[in-house]
Amino acid sequence: MASGQWTDSDLHLLTTQHCPLTTFMAPVFKRILLKLSGEALMGGQTYGIDTAVAESVAREIKAVHDVGVEVAIVVGGGNIFRGVSKSAGNMDRAAADYIGMLATVMNAVVLQDALEKLDVYTRVMSAIDIPQLAEPFIRRRAIRHLEKQRVVIFAAGTGNPYFTTDSAAALRAIEVGADVIFKATKVDGIYSADPVKVADATRFEKISYREVLDRRLQVMDTSAISLCMENNLPIMVFNMKVPGNIIKAANGDLSIGTLVTVGDTATTAS
Fold this sequence. Notes:
Structural class: alpha/beta
Number of domains: 1
Number of helices: 8
CATH superfamily: Acetylglutamate kinase-like
Order of helices and strands: HEHEHEEHEHEEEHHEHEE
CATH class: Alpha Beta
Radius of gyration: 17 Å
CATH architecture: 3-Layer(aba) Sandwich
Strand content: 15-25%
Helix content: 25-40%
């Protein structure tokens, strides 16, 4: 899957537009888990959090929440710190990963603030104990929050080093009984090759977990894909930069991205 870069025009579009609810059909998914990278909150910056982008992301989440979809979120911390990045230097991997978990908590609180300014009741649940900022992750409590139409943001990954937030997203989605994982990225799905480098790269509309693993496509890490495959949890990969795509994904619109699910052969987009 190709990686994209945020441009000034992308940032302007993301921060100034959102789509009206009246243009969409009833959602096909009742409960979703949205996986956001930390970089999604960075906008056009090279580091940190762009609050304008956080507010725009919150509006997109509110749009899907307002049509009755139960929304859980796992957010990464790569905009601040990542344990496997160069910024970790020669740090012990476990220590670096714990710092990365704290970065996800910061992002979660920023997103919570943006959502609650839009009158969307939101709870942050952390895998590490930070009672002043977040509730501890308790599975039954998380499900109850979702049933009460509260947005739940899962922070601090799994609470264990050596596991990515992709793995945390797969784990939490399975634990709370989500219908699908929405993997929000900077590109419009999964491609056979990097479309920036390969002119005739094709976008898949559907692809199986096994093919993702066999082709070593960079969708989510291997542990996360395997966990989804074992539990038959679909993954929808789509472009976060396009306003309205989250609610389109909730409607099952495959034209906006790629669906990873059980199957034998990949289907390319027409």
